[in-house]
Specification:
Layout: E1 2-6, H1 11-23, E2 28-33, E3 53-57, H2 63-73, E4 77-80, H3 87-92, H4 94-116, E5 124-130, H5 154-173, E6 177-182, E7 184-186, H6 195-204, E8 209-212, E9 218-223, H7 224-237, E10 243-246, E11 251-253, H8 254-268, E12 280-283, H9 298-304, H10 312-325, H11 327-333, H12 337-346
Parallel strand pairs: 1-2, 1-4, 2-3, 4-5, 5-6, 6-10, 7-9, 8-12
Antiparallel strand pairs: 9-11
Helix pairs in contact: 1-7, 2-4, 4-5, 6-8, 8-10
The structure holds nicotinamide-adenine-dinucleotide and thymidine-5'-diphosphate.
Length: 347
């Protein structure tokens, strides 16, 4: 099995790559990543010399390069995670999201189609997507696999579009695919632009903790290693042409999560509980901010036997410990261009 994983130097991708390299020694894993600001070779240092692993630096929007790569390696499977992934950045630079998330996905789909030309009964294109494609929920209800798409941000619109193209290739050409739509991930190696690592970094550097709007927005949080397990299951046991929703059964209003995180940080840093909460600062809201995401993950639970393996408190504790023990990783990724991003976003 020659398996291409795209975006493997990023947050979720690095955990997926590690899992496949370690658990499937008979597969060869090719990690294709452009190493944008979000990609980091440090994330996979521990497995970089494994004999069943190769890293390829390249851009999924470079059609010639991708076609040549598929001709050379004839990948049996693709797990596609490479994307621009941050909603706030999509608001300031929507075209970059259209290019990578839509065009990049189409270029991969085309290359896969041209490689196998219909002889693909044992092949698979797995597209990793987000629950944000479903739009925003009110106070009640859950996203099911049949919930109509209703994306609100340039990020979610670009992911929704890429999902549609994957399905369209399935319908039109018979390309074997599977899609999963997952809720908010957290865990080690997440770039500190997303809520949890941003707050951890700001607490460590004694900076304000920016709460968008009234802080009453709700997200469902899943520990990243549980997402990697789910991806493994969907890749090996999922039905082609099906979609699987993946979630943590773990809804939190932002402000409650932020307070829990602050208090856990104070305990870990051995200082009076309440110290970090003083940094909480209400700031201007994100435009088009989705009120609530919540996933019904009963299909993957019933069909593939998946459920989260850790509680939120356990996952958060492991995550905080990792950032506390990897301050060098954190200071490396927050130097340079991160400072410009931060000033622009939060000044
Ligand atoms: P990330 O931003 O941490 O990593 C993205 C990776 O893709 C980086 O390594 C980056 O270098 C690479 N990349 C970006 N543009 C590329 C290009 N043009 N060519 C090749 N590589 C490129 O993202 P993440 O949080 O790990 O998310 C991975 C995937 O999972 C995305 O498709 C995202 O939409 C999806 N997802 C994320 C979450 C979440 O909470 N983070 C939840 C559900 C789904
Ligand atoms: P984020 O981690 O960006 O994920 P997403 O927007 O994809 O759900 O944000 C999670 C929630 O936290 C979202 O409601 C926006 C909010 N948020 C803040 O209040 N302040 C911040 O600085 C950030 C980055 C997010």
């Amino acid at each position: 099995m020659k398996l291409l994983i795209t975006g493997g130097a990023g947050f979720i991708g690095s955990h997926v790559v590690r899992r496949f390299v370690q658990n499937y020694p008979s597969y060869h894993i090719y990690n294709l990543d452009a190493l944008t600001y979000a990609g980091n070779m440090e994330n996979l240092k521990d497995i970089e010399n494994n004999s069943n692993y190769s890293f390829i630096k390249g851009d999924i929007t470079d059609e010639k390069f991708i076609n040549a790569l598929f001709s050379e390696h004839r990948f049996d499977g693709v797990i596609h995670l490479a994307a621009e992934s941050h909603v706030d950045r999509s608001i300031t630079d929507p075209l970059a999201f259209a290019k990578t998330n839509i065009l990049g996905t189409m270029i991969l789909l085309n290359a896969f189609k041209e490689t196998w030309k219909g002889n693909w009964s044992d092949k698979l294109f797995y597209h990793v997507s987000t629950d944000e494609v479903y739009g925003s929920l009110g106070e009640t209800g859950l996203f099911e696999e049949t919930t109509p798409y209703d994306p609100n941000s340039p990020y979610s619109a670009s992911k929704a579009s890429s999902d549609h193209f994957v399905r369209a290739y399935g319908e039109t050409y018979g390309l074997p695919y599977v899609i999963s739509n997952c809720s908010n991930n957290y865990g080690q190696n997440q770039f500190p632009e997303k809520l949890i690592p941003l707050f951890i970094n700001n607490i460590l550097t004694d900076k304000p903790l920016p709460v968008y709007g009234d802080g009453k927005y709700t997200r469902d949080w899943l520990y990243v290693l549980d997402h990697a397990i789910a991806i493994d299951l969907v890749f090996h046991k999922g039905q082609t042409t099906e979609t699987y929703n993946i979630g943590g059964f773990n809804e939190w209003q932002n402000i409650d999560l932020m307070k829990l995180l602050c208090d856990q940080m104070d305990l870990k840093l051995k200082r009076p509980v309440g110290t970090s909460q003083k940094l909480i600062t209400y700031v201007k809201d994100r435009p088009g901010h989705d009120l609530r995401y919540a996933i019904d993950a009963s299909k993957i639970n019933k069909e593939l036997g998946w459920k989260p393996s850790v509680t939120f408190e356990q996952g958060l504790s492991i995550t905080i410990d990792w950032y506390l023990n990897n301050e060098e990783w954190l200071s490396n990724v927050t130097s340079g261009s991160y400072q410009n991003y931060y000033t622009k976003q939060y000044s």
